[in-house]
Amino acid sequence: MSEDNAVNLKTSPVTEVVDRTEWAQMMTDDEYYPFLIKKNLRPAIWRWQDVVERLDVVMKDPLRNADRRFIALVHGDTGEAGGVFPSIFLGIQAINPGEHIVAHRHNSYALYHIMQGEGYSILDGKRFDWKRGDTFACPPMASHEHINTGTEPAIQYVIQDMPARAMERNLIWEEPMGHVFHAVEGNRPHQP
Ligand SMILES: [Fe+2]
């Protein structure tokens, strides 16, 4: 490619020409390995009785736009990651009778175990009926929605790699479908 062609290339608008960034740092191995070694996590337990107490309150809330009824079990030792482990989200999700969690998708996977109730989910256009004891897996970027068809609240035990995606700053969310968000500060998937 000639230089003439290079300068005539159509590019995005440039607001700044960058030489160095002070946050581009370097470490020797003597510095890096101690930095890399993290304090271990303490064993932790969440009592079902305590979870239910919190979930009961959330279940009485009027459901907001794209909102959910779940309690995230967050291990305090995971710091900024905010997971049950640093890379894993564990949530107990309730869906009241007749409720519908509308179609959306994200690049975190989701694993569901049904603890109570019955209903169905539509994963990438395929219907999966479920009831107590069933487990189903929703792969990354598969659209999914959940409907409670029973007479009691449906309770789902949900595992996702959402904190890992968030820590990498590559959590991508599409909700409602057609509305894509890069989930970083200032660009949240939805506001309560
Ligand atoms: Fe989801």
TrEMBL record:
Source species: Paraburkholderia phytofirmans OLGA172
Bilayer-spanning residue ranges: none
InterPro entries named among the record's database cross-references: Cupin_2 (IPR013096), GDO-like (IPR047183), RmlC-like_jellyroll (IPR014710), RmlC_Cupin_sf (IPR011051)
Every Cupin type-2 domain range: 92-156
Secretion signal, residue range per the UniProt entry: none
Oxidoreductase recorded as keyword: yes
Keyword list, A-Z: Dioxygenase, Oxidoreductase
Cross-referenced Pfam families: Cupin_2
Top-level lineage group: Bacteria
Entry GO MF terms: dioxygenase activity
Protein name, per record: Cupin type-2 domain-containing protein
